[in-house]
Amino acid sequence: MASGPGSRFIQSIGMPGTSGVxxxxxxxxxxxxxxxxxxxxxxxxxxxxxxxxxxxxxxxxVAALAAEAHSAGLIAIAHIVSxxxxxxALDGGVDIVTHTPLNGDIDATTRGLIAAARTAVIPxxxxxxxxxxxxxxxxxxxxxxxxxxxxxxxxxxxESAVRVFRDAGAPVLAGTDASDNPHxxxxxxxxxxxxxxxxxxxxxxxxxxxxxxxxxxxxxxxFGLTDRGRIAPGLRADLVLVDGDPTRDITQSRAVxxxxxxxxxxxxx
Length: 269
Prior knowledge:
The chain contains eleven helices and seven strands. It has helices at residues 8-12, 27-37, 59-71, 83-92, 108-117, 125-134, 139-147, 155-167, 193-203, 208-215, 217-222; strands at 41-45, 75-79, 96-98, 120-122, 239-242, 256-261, 264-268.
């Protein structure tokens, strides 16, 4: 997980010092270390310099990390938090962005970059809603937002971003960012939160069937998981049986009757 030098985020979650990146010339070393660790992908944390205490990476560093990841045959994912960091991720050539900007609507030029690259997004709308409240509602951010428009966080911008990616023909994936880490701005619970995320994606403009694909076949395609994500001969039998038709009413995804992992039934209602 690449972030700026001395990142408090890296320190707070107990990652080694080698997880920091000093600049573009450090990218090859960083990716080589992650390959040696057995990493399946490279995640790049792009922080916005407008946020107090941030340790932002330059676009040149992001591009170098993405290029090194691709050379190693790995996917490059960028953690973005704002319009500025989204643009840096797109200019840097990452494959996937996770989270959405909360400080404004995506401009026409950035929309064009998304359409051209078909960069995938994992919006984590539940996390974005909680973050907008937890961070955007803090006294410090309220004061900063009054002075710096780019620091004003609103959940509706996250929903708007989903529509931008959808209209650009880019993959929109379902992910929750569930965590019990005490240092994250908002804790999303494991399990049930995926149903909330599906409903949020539909509320943001995705047809229910596309939201479901974002949790199954489209997600498998984006991450190159060719052995799963669909019901077909020869693939993993990872199945969920529900009452009703969630392709028409996404809330029916919650009516789970049975779950199979690798063909083995692990839950029955």
